[in-house]
Design a protein that fits this description.
By secondary structure, the protein is an alpha/beta fold. The protein has helices at about 15-30, 35-50, 70-75, 85-95, 130-140, 155-160, 180-185, 205-210, 210-220, 225-235; strands spanning about 60, 80-85, 100-105, 115-120, 140-155, 190-200, 235-245. The protein has one domain (about 5-200, about 235-245): Vaccinia Virus protein VP39 (Rossmann fold). The protein has 10 helices and 7 strands.
Length: about 250
């Protein structure tokens, strides 16, 4: 069994039609950015992008939703966005007319090879049925030495969070750990930077680490921001963050 494959809940219907229906409903409920955590992931991705110092790169966003991040990515270069949710793509076209958007499954779309300098994908990796194939598709779409900016759910934390509801129909869920993500990417990409964001979890040791009492006590000594950063450096963030570069 390939890394990441074991997180599939086979009892849930996740064919293309059910996935499209689920994500259309999801994007309708999250018309802007989905909240502070989503905004922070977007800011992190933009910060990584800025660090690359590229001149007008061609950008592909996979899982672009209603275009909220694509709108910001346009400041770096021309943007193409893809998403399985066709209603979200319609909203993205209205919202960001200067970008190009396509609706469909990225694994089946057949976009031109070697067309992009940077691929950005936030919180989409765990919702794809064939993660190794997605990595291969991304590598083929990127030009030589192109970059990948990716965030995805951290299985080590999500498995220890009792507040996570079971997957709904159409919600394919294949969480990975940082080790699994690195292993999956290693054949086609070299990792340049990695880390975690947004400490979470309330089971096992995390029940103590993230308790209100412990967090309040540490925050009085070190400040809340420093406590959060320390947890993230220890790998306790519920979001994995990766900047990688396509191998030669």
């Amino acid at each position: 069994m390939s890394p990441g494959m074991h997180r599939l809940d086979s009892s849930v219907n996740w064919d293309s039609d059910s996935q499209r229906k689920f994500w259309n409903a999801w994007d309708t409920q999250h018309l802007q950015t989905g909240g502070e955590e989503t905004r922070r992931r977007g800011d992190e991705a933009l910060g990584l992008f800025s660090s690359l110092n590229l001149e007008r790169p061609r950008i592909l966003e996979i899982g672009c939703g209603n275009g909220w991040l694509a709108e910001r990515l346009l400041s770096f270069g021309p943007v193409t966005g893809v998403d399985i949710a066709d209603e979200a793509i319609q909203e993205a076209r209205r919202r960001v007319p200067s970008a190009e958007f396509h609706s469909g499954n990225i694994l089946e779309m057949g976009l031109s090879r070697n067309s992009f300098d940077v691929v950005v994908t936030l919180e989409t990796f765990s919702h794809v049925e064939d993660q190794p194939k997605l990595i291969e598709v991304i590598a083929n779409l990127l030009r030589d030495r192109g970059y990948l900016i990716l965030t995805t759910q951290n299985r080590s934390i999500y498995m220890r969070n009792s507040r996570i509801a079971p997957p709904a129909e159409g919600q394919l869920r294949r969480w990975v750990t940082m080790q699994e993500l690195r292993r999956l990417l290693s054949g086609r990409f070299e990792c340049l930077r990695s880390g975690t964001m947004e400490p979470g979890g309330n089971r096992g040791l995390l029940r103590v680490v993230n308790s209100v009492k412990v967090t309040s006590f540490l925050s009085r000594i070190f400040s809340k921001e420093r406590v959060v950063r320390a947890k993230e450096r220890l790998g306790l963030g519920q979001t994995l963050v990766m900047l990688a570069r396509k191998r030669r």
